[in-house]
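Render this sequence as a predicted structure.
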Amino acid sequence: MFASPITTVAPTSQGKVRDLYDLGDQLLLVATDRISAFDYILPDEIPNKGRVLTQLSVFWFQLLEGVVENHLISTDVADLPQAFQPFASWLRGRFMLVRKAEMFPVECIVRGYLAGSGLAEYQKSGTVCGIALPEGLVNSSKLPQPLFTPSTKADIGGHDENISFERCAQIVGEEDAQELSRLSTQIYSTAADYAAERGIIIADTKFEFGRIGDAIILGDEVLTPDSSRFWPADLYEPGKSQPSFDKQYVRDWLSANWDKQGEPPYLPEDVIRRTAEKYEQAFEMITGRTLEV
C-alpha cells in the first residue's frame, strides 16, 4: 500500500489517487496529493491536489442535484469517526463520507471535442470508439454532439480499454447502458454550459455510476482536472493541442524525459508548482471560490 498520513487506520483499498475506508454502512473516500500519468503513480505529490479534487467534486455534486442523485453524505470533520479525528487537519477539505453503492464495472466517458485517443482513432479511420464522424475535423474540433464512449475499468498499472456501446450493454445490460448514456451526456452538457460561462471548455470527462436500491447514482469524483480535459476558452484554437488546466505539464515533461520503462522519475520543482497552480486556477474559475486549505 502507498504511505498515508493516517497512521492508525489502514485503508481498505487504494487507487491511484484515493484511499478508501470501509466504515460499515458508509465509505470514507480520501483524496491524497498523489498524481498518476501514463498509468503510473509518480513518486512526487502535487500540493493540495486532493483538496481540489474533493472540493470541486462536492461543488458539482451540489450543482447537479437536479439532474442525478449522488453518493455524498458529509464533508464535515465533525462527522468523521473518532479514529480519524487526530488527522482532522490533514483530512479537512479532502474527504467525503459517502453512501455505499454497487458500482457499474464501466467508466462512462463523454467527449465533446476531438482529442486524445479519440483524435488518434479519427485520424486513422474517421471514427471515435467506432462512431463515424464527419470528414474534415481537426485536432480539438468541437464534435457535432457529445459522444458517450464507455471504457473498461483497469486495475492499477493496467490500461482502460475503449469499448462500444454494444459491448457496454453486454456488460451492464441494455436498459442500464441506455440510462448511463443518457445521464452521462446530460450531466456533461449541463456542466459544459456552466463552465463555458466561466471561461473553461470541458473537452471530455469520465463519470462513475453506481446503484443504491433502484436508483442510479453518481459517485467517485466528478468533473475535476484528473477526470476531465479543461481548456481555457480564451485561448481555444482548433487545429492544434490546447493549453490545459490539468496535469499536461506533467505528461509533457515525462514524455520528454522518460521512456516509460521502469519506475517513473521525480519531477522538477517548477513542474510540480505549475501543475498545482493550474489545478487551483481551474477550481477558482469554476466555483468562484478560493480553495479551502
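Summary. The mean pLDDT is 94. The radius of gyration is 19 Å.
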